[in-house]
Every structure is written in C-alpha cells, then in structure tokens.
Design goal:
The protein has 57 residues and is of the alpha+beta class. Helices cover 21% and strands 32% of the residues. The protein has one domain. Strands 1-2 form a two-stranded antiparallel sheet. The N and C termini lie far apart (24 Å).
Length: 57
C-alpha cells in the first residue's frame, strides 16, 4: 500500500475530511496541530476502523 485515501464525514466531530496520505517516501505521518484541531477525533476514528467498530461511526 503506497497511498491511503481518506474520505470521512461526521466522525467524532469531523464534519468532512477528504485527503490522501502518500507512503511511498516513508512509513509514517506525524500530525501536529493546535488543541481543538480534531487530532483525537481522527485517532479515535482510525481506532474504531481497526477494531471493526463501524457502528460507532
């Protein structure tokens, strides 16, 4: 997997997020942003997907 397409809507306060992460140059991304920028919401959404907890979304 070299690219990961993200298309989220209404997930833990994330109204809409559509972006692409390109992993062809590295294995990880660091997300740095001020408080209240939805970092925790994004992490919780990914955790639910990894745990197959789609019903929460």
């Amino acid at each position: 997997m070299k690219k990961l397409n993200i298309d989220l809507e209404n997930c833990y306060g994330i109204k809409k997020l559509k972006t692409q992460f390109d992993f062809s140059q590295g294995k990880a991304y660091a997300i740095y942003a001020p408080n209240g920028a939805m970092k925790t919401s994004l992490a919780q959404t990914f955790k639910d997907i990894a745990d197959l907890s789609y019903q929460k979304l």
